[in-house]
Amino acid sequence: MSASALREIAPGTYVRRHSELDLNCGLVVGSERALVIDTRSTTERGEALAAAVREITPLEQVVVNTHAHYDHCFGNAAFRDSQIYAHVGAAESLQRTAEHQRSQVVEHLRRTERPELAQTYVDTEVVLPFYLVEAETTPIDLGDRTAYLIFGGRGHTDHDLLVAVPDVSTVFWADLIEQGADPAMDDSFPLEWGETLTRLQEHPHVRGARLNVPGHGEVVGPEFVDQQRQVLTHLATELAAALDLGVQDVDGLVAKTRGLGLQDSTLRDAAVRTLETRSREAGADAAR
Ligand SMILES: [Zn+2]
Hints:
By secondary structure, the chain is of the alpha/beta class. It has a single domain (7-221), classed as 4-Layer Sandwich (Metallo-beta-lactamase, Chain A). It is built from eight helices and twelve strands. It has helices at residues 43-56, 70-73, 88-111, 115-122, 193-202, 222-244, 250-257, 264-287, and strands at 7-10, 13-17, 24-29, 33-37, 60-64, 83-87, 131-133, 137-141, 146-151, 161-165, 170-174, 211-214. The strands form two sheets. It has a seven-stranded mixed sheet with strand order 1-2-3-4-5-6-7. It has a five-stranded mixed sheet with strand order 8-9-10-11-12, with no helix packed on it. Helix 3 (88-111) runs antiparallel to helix 4, helix 5 (193-202) packs antiparallel against helix 6 and helix 7 crosses helix 8 (264-287). It is globular, with a radius of gyration of 19 Å. It binds zinc ion (ZN). Zinc ion binds at residues 67, 69, 156, 175, 184.
């Protein structure tokens, strides 16, 4: 088995862990169809994933983009013949932000002297998902088994889908759960993320899942998920308490949220997002 192979973590259920950003993609194989979870960050990388999938199964593929961050969906062109699912908010977000995301990555890679890799991003065609879901739970019929796309509310973004595979007690959490690094806050809703995880953990297809695949890092047990939920819930409580006290600046919010085990850069991003979301939503209320 090659290093780039998909690893079977449960019957017919695979994870491919990548060196770029320690990203995980998933594969769930049924009797009639296979579900591919996320497509990596460029067409070239997506094609390598597609080739690895074909080594496992010749079945028709269905794809889900868990959210609109480039590392999870810029490989879509390699799966353009498949039904590509995402939350309706992911399609909107990708349409709005793809070129900005691409230019940020290209600029970073050129600055860090990786022009060839930068070029693969330039050459990538962004393909939008077109099977769009809004429901809390969307079953994906794979033949003899069913996977479920589940939306639990705002968290890492406003459109994260997780994938539950209850027959093997497995959940692909995407970036709602992250192992090996702090949860990424850039587009997040820090006041709601913990609650969203609580709601998702109580979902009948998620509750008690033994195998939990984060968007990045190692496969973890339920206690890890629960611990991250607790940290994010504490963060929300501390942020809300600080806002109630009238704290209205990033440094002030960071100072009030230390001690939860999150890095200062994460707390800073969380503070920025909290203030941005609050002012945007206050503005929207005032305009009503
Ligand atoms: Zn993400």
